[in-house]
Amino acid sequence: MRRGPGYQRLLALFFVGGLLFNFPLMRIFEQDTSLFGLPLLPTALFIVWALLIVALALLMERGAGED
Amino acid sequence: MSPALIIGAALAYLLALFGVAAWADRRAAAGRSVIGNAWVYALSMGVYCTAWTYFGSVGRAAATGVWFLPIYLGPTLAMVLAWPVLRKMIRISRAYRITSIADFIASRYGKSAALAGGVTLIALVGVVPYVALQLKAVSSAYALMTGGSPDAPGLPGAWWADTTLYIALLLAGFTILFGTRHLDNTERHEGMVAAIAAESVVKLLAFIAVGVFVCWGLFNGPADLFARARAVPEVARVLQPAARFAYDQWFALLLLAMLSVIFLPRQFQVMVVENVDERHVRRAAWAFPAYLLLINIFVLPIAVGGLLFFGTGQANPETFVLSLPLAAGVPWLALVAFVGGLSAATGMVIVEAIAVSTMVCNDLVLPLLLRRKAFAQRELTGLLLGIRRAVIVGLLLLGYVYFRVAGEAYALVSIGLISFAAVAQFAPALLGGMYWKGGTQRGAFAGLAAGAALWAWTLMVPSIAKSGWLGDDFATLLTHGPWGIGWLRPEQLLGLGGLDNLSHALFWSLLANAGLYVGLSLWKPPSAREASQALLFVDVFERASAGRVFWRGRARVADLVSLVGRFLGPERATSLFLGYARRLGRQGVEQLDADAALVHFAETQLAGAIGSASARVMVASVVEEEVLEIDDVMRIVEEASELRHVNERLLSLDRLKDDIMSSVTHELRTPLTSIRALAELMRDAPDMDEPQRQQFLGIVVTETERLSRLVNQVLDMAKIESGHAEWHNSDIDLRALLQQAALSTAELFRERGATLVLTLPESVPALRGELPALRADADRLTQVLLNLLSNAAKFVPREGGRVELRLTTDALGATIEVIDNGPGVPLEQQQLVFEKFRQGGDAAHRPQGTGLGLPISRQIVEHFGGRLWLRSEPGAGSCFAFSLPWAGPKDEETRP
Fold first, then answer.
1. Is the pLDDT of residue B635 over 80?
2. Which residues of B touch A4 (CB under 8 A)?
3. Is the pLDDT of residue B427 over 50?
4. What are the φ/ψ torsions at residue B868 (nearest 5 degrees)?
5. How far separated are the first and last CA of chain A, in Å rounded?
6. How far apart are alpha carbons B560 and B376 in whole angstroms?
7. How far apart are CA B630 and CA B110, in angstroms?
8. What confidence score (pLDDT) does residue B584 get?
9. What ipTM score was computed for the predicted complex, to two decimals?
10. Over the stretch A9-47, which tens digit does the pLDDT of each residue have?
């Protein structure tokens, strides 16, 4: 039953995501500057979001062929 | 554009969609399902993105910048936990044929009809504004496309001239075609899921097409777009960080979206009910968030591009997706975008209406109908379908009424958030019920009721008051409270201020909800039925829970078959029961026993069609059942786990038998081969000389003896290991026993030219009566001694062999050692000699033996609570010793 993505890793990823999308870590991006010509806060949120999805995909797809 | 063109495009699109659904249904019927695929499953989850996402997000972004995002970040976080949480929901729903969120909660808390009705009401009330949102979006889009004003679509004309009404009716008809063509006891809709997945692709591509057009068609890429935005102060304001970023509201939105993505009726429908294979969760868990990310990438560019193009306050930002291509002179793109928006809205309406119609039919209408005698004996398949169709039309009309009354006063997103907060109330009872066995029906009901009441008071009432259609007097409620009671003000309950109204409402409603749920659950313990359901839900992944059935009573097979037949049709019922009988290896339905498992099977089949609460009532009406007490539930659990232990023991015995069989076969073959070879030799050579023949016959006799010894020892071993050996215990005089053993083996040692020395203490304490006597089976102990002594005799050197048999005693017990001066046992073999069929010494010098003597001896000694060990250094002889404690097994004389 415990095969597949480790519960503890998923829980850890959940808390990491929860922290990154909240006060105070989000304040880091709350500045009136640009990244590649794009406003920082939305760009940073999208990048963090994308990284979160990539990490989740790696956790979920690992060993997917086993069962 | 002309209305005919728009309507034509919309109808063509809907027909194409219906074609997809019909194709998928045909494929499913042919056994080649198109939805048995993780990608399709992930795309069908995209039904989360409705007209809210398509039109509302752009409006939200144009007003507040990044604030459209938490609605999609929350679901991403929720999907991180999809594998543990969503998969468990799927497993539970599959096991107990649960087909709606109301059924899930009601079933967990003892199949309570009241709870099912309550959850259905909350879902229904919560979803109506959300349906209105879709109608509003489609009708403003239609108005804009045909050149009208998107801000007052269809109004103020007469109701029969209102296009929105026809849109609502068209969607209702379409939903009926999709969802209620036949009654299925799993509530699966393959065609619908395929169509929803197709719609997800259409709306994503259409939205991205508009985004690409805005970024690169109207501007020179996103960098240029944002650079120009910074030059216009009113637009730059949207992108600049606010003076104080409202993190509390941000957190509330994240939490709300996180819960909604699981608890919205349509999400539950596509993610849990329509799931084909729970392994698909693995891919969907990340593919669905990836879909959300893609559909959101161009929201901000379109919003900012629209503000720059039209100027702030000039056009409704919620329709930028359409108005930008129209104003830029690319009408075909606008038409594509319109179809995309239609896609988003219809997808939501279809799935939501099907999910809600299942709930209303099973959990509100049926319990009332089933009480009436007139319906008690009729076949109800047709009636069920009729009810569902009526509910679908009713839901769309309710949405239309809400839209007419209050729709135009709000932004799309605000309407949607009210719905989100309503379904978030399911969280404590549902999540708590999945992981906490202590949650009770009383707690769940009180929590839901309080949460829903507070939701209505703190969100619904203020929004109605603000819309002004109940008059200005009603609006003073917000500022002064009801009857002037200040601490009851809906947006500052108990004087709690400083929060935006959504966070305020979410805080109070979830606090009361979770507080009452936990508090009342702890206050009084659950009933037997609740406790048994709790076990079934919480332990759904445990293998032991698979066969548990909490039911006792008497039933008749024919009654059960005809009951299921009344709801699913007689043919379906017969084939279901026949399939069940075949799985049990029976020939036909009449050979089934009407036991608890069959009653459970019938009830589960019914639950799929009419919900678990109604199924419970119906089954109870045709069987005689005993009321289970909480002790009975516990006993059933224990019996099940006892059964598992017995099964495991049988399995291990089985393995043991296989082990012995394979070794024994090997050991038997060697002597048999040599006996056969010698016998054949003598048969084929009748003129063999006598000494030769005598020698051969001698070998045959020895080998035969070895064979019978082997068989005896194998049987002995098997008896001891399985615990079936007989033990005749008596008080043992160790000195006499040792002397007897030495006497028996004297001849053996004399043959080998070896001496046996017996070293005994003056007296054994046990004989003085001061210490408990040694109780053991004398024959068995002799067997051990003879085995050790004969082993020693085999290994001592031909000349000058010396074996010492020594007895020592102390307060704890006696130790018997057999010390020889043979070659000793090499270190690496010291453990092996105790294994079955392993013999010491290399092959050339291996003496005759079965390889079972030492393992048996060890088993015997251990049976008396002692220990048998070997101490040896190569070249310096070896010492086999065993100890026996004084207090042996006191009780049993014999062991069965």
1. no
2. 83, 282
3. yes
4. -125, 130
5. 10
6. 15
7. 13
8. 79
9. 0.93
10. 899 999 999 999 988 888 888 877 878 878 888 899 999
* Percent over 70 (pLDDT), chain B: 87
- Min mean pLDDT across B113-127, B597-611, B656-670 is at B656-670
Location of structure tokens 């496309």: B145
In this predicted structure, the answer to whether residue B406 has a pLDDT above a threshold of 60 is yes
**Residue B339 Cα distances to B16, B174, B201, angstroms:** 12, 16, 12
Distance CA(B70)–CA(A42), nearest Å, equals 11
For B462-504, the DSSP string reads: HHHHHHTTT-HHHHHHHHH-GGG-GGG-TTSGGG--SS-HHHH
Please tell me which residue, B548 or B220, carries the higher pLDDT value: B220
Helix (H, G, I), strand (E, B) or coil at B755: strand
Q: Tell me, what's the pLDDT at B298?
A: 93
pLDDT of B441 over the 50 cut: yes
Q: What domain range includes position A21?
A: 5-64
Of A32, A49, A52, the CB nearest to B241: A32
State pLDDT tens for residues A43-67: 999 999 999 999 999 998 875 554 4
Q: Is B546 on the interface with A (CB under 8 A)?
A: no
Length, in residues, of chain A: 67
CA distances from A48 to A25, A42, A43, B256, B302 (A): 12, 10, 9, 20, 21
List pLDDT tens digits, range B363-380.
Answer: 888 888 877 766 656 667
Give the per-residue pLDDT at B408.
64
Of all helices (H) and strands (E), which one includes residue B801? strand B801-809
Q: Hey, is the C-beta of B80 within 8 angstroms of any chain A C-beta?
A: yes
Cα–Cα nearest to B423, from B397, B447, B463, B452? B452
Answer for the pair B435, B428: CB distance below 8 angstroms, yes or no.
no
Q: For residues B239 and B226, is the Cβ–Cβ distance under 8 A?
A: yes
Pairing of strands B754-759, B801-809: parallel
Residue pair B855/B710 in contact (Cβ under 8 Å)? The answer is no
- Count CB-CB contacts under 10 A for residue B30: 8
Amino acid, single-letter form, for residue B399:
G
**Does the CB of B188 have a partner CB in chain A at under 8 Å?**
no
3-state DSSP assignment of residue B771:
coil
B83 reaches A (C-beta below 8 A): yes
What are the structure tokens assigned to B317, written together? 């930002």
The total domain count for chain A is 1
Any idea which of B83-92, B124-133, B242-251, B299-308 has the lowest mean pLDDT? B242-251
Find where tokens 């299921």 sit: B564
Q: What share of chain A is helix, strand, coil (3-state, %, to 5)?
A: 60, 5, 35
Determine, for residues A21 and B254 on separate chains, whether the beta-carbon distance falls below 8 Å: yes
Provide the pairing of β-strand A38-39 with B624-625. Answer: unpaired
Q: What angle do CA A57, A63, A65 make, to 5 degrees?
A: 105
User: Residue B557: which pLDDT band, with cuts at 50, 70 and 90?
Assistant: confident
Q: Whole-angstrom Cα distance, residue B857 to residue B868?
A: 8
> Would an 8 Å CB–CB cutoff place B375 in contact with chain A?
no
Question: What is the three-class DSSP state of B758?
Answer: strand
Q: For residue B494, is it left (φ>0), alpha (ψ between -120 and 50) or beta?
A: left
In the structure encoding, which two tokens stand for residue B22, read together? Answer: 């019909």
Closest CB from A7, A32, A42 relative to B84: A7
- Token look-up 């026949």 returns B578
B392 with B175: CB under 8 angstroms?
yes
Contacts of B227 in chain A (CB under 8 A): 37
The neighbour count for residue B157, using CB atoms within 10 Å, is 9
Phi, then psi, of B183 in degrees rounded to 5: -95, 130
Distance spanning both ends of chain B, measured CA to CA? 94
Which chain B residue has the Cα nearest residue A17? Answer: B77
Determine whether the interchain pair B282/A30 forms a contact, defined as Cβ–Cβ distance below 8 Å.
no
List of residues 6+ apart from B895 with CB closer than 8 A? B723, B725, B726, B727
